Amino acid sequence: MISGKNLTKAYSDKKILSGVDILIGNGRKIGLVGKNGCGKTTLFRILNGIEDPSGGNIDIQNEIIGYIPQEFDFPDEMVGEYLEKRLESKWDTYKLEILAAQLKFSNYDPYQILTTLSEGQKMKVKLMEIFLSDPTVLFIDEPTNHLDIEGIMWFEDYVRSLPIAVVMISHDRSFLNHTVDEILEIDKQKIFRFVGDYDNYKEEKLKLINKWDQEYVLFLKKKQQLETLLENVRKIKDGKKRGRAVESVKKRIDREIVHNKKEKYVSKKIKELEFDTTVHTGKLMVRFDKVSKSYGDNNVFQDLSFELRGKEKIWLYGPNGAGKSTIVKILMNIEKPTTGEVTIGENIKIGYFSQVQSNLTSENEIMDEFIEKTGCYFGQAYGYLNKFLFDRDSVRKRVWQLSPGERARFAFAIFAYKNYDLLVLDEPDNHLDIETKEVLEKSLSEFNGTLLLVSHDRYFVEMVGVDKVLNLKEGKLTFFEEM
């Protein structure tokens, strides 16, 4: 078992975790959730001995720990060479073939350079490396971030089949529903435990919030009663009686109010994204006519034909490398088709959100970058950014200092400043915490224009409410009327 008692963590004067108790083991599958920046990765690093807690104790009894971080940092060497260094003996190379088979790593090539692997392949190499040490507890940070739907579904089955304890940080609600039997949430610097899958956690957390709110109302009522009582006993004419009564009420206030303070539960969320559009049903937004794309001898897809019409919400999905982002870039005229014709409807405003925010790396402060990219007046910029949870201190951060979650939030602040008729969103939910995803889902479900959405998050897609599906696989596009 791994147990943490009264764990705290602070960076200078900012407390991240406070009085955290945690118990891991017995083959349980656990999902760790919470807002971006709440301390999930920090807790992982503490439990794995990468960071020390500021206070508290960790006890590890008869466990071998494996840890897979959110991002992979592989050297520029061959897969086999990298893995063989982690074997106890050169005679153990057979273990690599066994692990590759267990992981269904059908295209395992020991001579391929690590840095040329897809993210899904890198995940499997990392799992092979970890399982060479026969771990009894596995920690995985955001395992679905770089996997396509087929990869996610494979990983769901794989996690369920493991006989060891697995703890995963994830914002993929469908993935959590299919894998975990327990949810741990970091909220207000504490850990809360919920037995069951993600949907059960949401239901139980709502009950808990209602309980806290009721306790807060009762607390305010008692506080008012004791304050009124204190005023009344101060009016007692007899000095001795008044003194004893005042002292007695003050003790009650100290015991029942000061040392038993209740606070109203508040959860800050970004504002909803609002886009005004007057596009009518049936208006031609985009037409692809026999569009093909090749890079040298690599034929990505050939003779793709489809249309986007007014008010349609379309989900484009397929395996990694199938060409989904290439379709998006051709639509946005970032890349040219090898053959075929692309037609964009007349007088439409297109909003494009890329999965890679490569333009958000400047030395500018957030406030200055926002004004430069949107043309917003200085006097309005702070109020607008505050709706996306950037306060007066954080707007003075340099753009390059932003975490992935903050960068995604800032990108949406810039994106949502203007109105669009057609939204083209390529993996918009990457690096967003669940609460922010929920706001985005509601905004997109209420959007009255046309939406082309690329995403591997099935829960997100379902909540947005797409009405048509385009599946791109092996260079061909298949059309479905519904999910």
UniProtKB/TrEMBL annotation:
PROSITE patterns: ABC_TRANSPORTER_1 (PS00211), ABC_TRANSPORTER_2 (PS50893). It holds the Pfam family ABC_tran. InterPro entries: AAA+_ATPase, ABC_transporter-like_ATP-bd, ABC_transporter-like_CS, ABCF, P-loop_NTPase. CDD domains: ABCF_EF-3. Residues 2-220, 286-483 form the ABC transporter domain. Gene3D superfamilies: P-loop containing nucleotide triphosphate hydrolases (3.40.50.300). This is ABC-F family ATP-binding cassette domain-containing protein. It comes from candidate division WWE3 bacterium.
